[in-house]
Design a protein that fits this description.
The chain is α/β, with parallel strands linked by helices and 217 residues long. It has one domain: Rossmann fold (3-Layer(aba) Sandwich), CATH 3.40.50. Helices cover 37% and strands 21% of the residues. The protein has nine helices and seven strands. A seven-stranded mixed sheet has the order 3-2-1-4-5-7-6, sandwiched between helices. Helix 3 packs across helix 4. The relative contact order is 0.15. One of its GO terms (molecular function) is rRNA (guanine-N7-)-methyltransferase activity. Keywords: Cytoplasm, Methyltransferase, rRNA processing, S-adenosyl-L-methionine, Transferase. Specifically methylates the N7 position of a guanine in 16S rRNA. This is Ribosomal RNA small subunit methyltransferase G.
Length: 217
Amino acid sequence: MGIESEVFGDALPVAERYAKFLAEAGVERGLIGPREVDRLWERHLINCAVVAEVIPERARVVDIGSGAGLPGIVLAIVRPDLSITLLEPLLRRTTFLNECVEMLGLTNVVVRRARAEEVASEFSMDVATARAVAPLERLARWALPLLRPGGELLALKGERAAVELEEAQPVLKRFGVRTTELLQVGRGKVDPPTTLVRVVAEHAPRRAKGSRKKRSS
């Protein structure tokens, strides 16, 4: 547990409880695939936790399409200074997330059942995170209206990160975005390092072309 202890520090016992809940209830409810259990730490928990390296202190964070709580729950564990909203439209997932929050005693987390476009007028966040939610072209439409001017989207992406960033340029230009970059975090802690697409919102219009289809619970 060397790397795990280095990444989570004093919060490691909380992370261990979360990992156990993912491996049991998460699998039973279809939020985590059975094949993921043996690689929960490296592929999921540590992969998400290292995102905290680039999040400012005391930031207000919205995790879009939070699902099983990746990366939102993990960030809340490793960074208690953050104020995190887990945004998820599906009832069975928000039920799971609320159980996690209560079980782990995470006082810095709120679970909200909604789609991003439904709550854009209510939010003015410092950071939006998302993992395995949608291609950046669509994700940007949902995330940027949730951010304050100067806020940033941190999208966890894989080997297609550069391609997705290029494909999203027309959407980003419509939002007035001028600052984008690819980042790698967690070097020496997770292999390969976690790849992030970072998009800084110059301004965040509350509506944009394209919307997300409704999903049932």
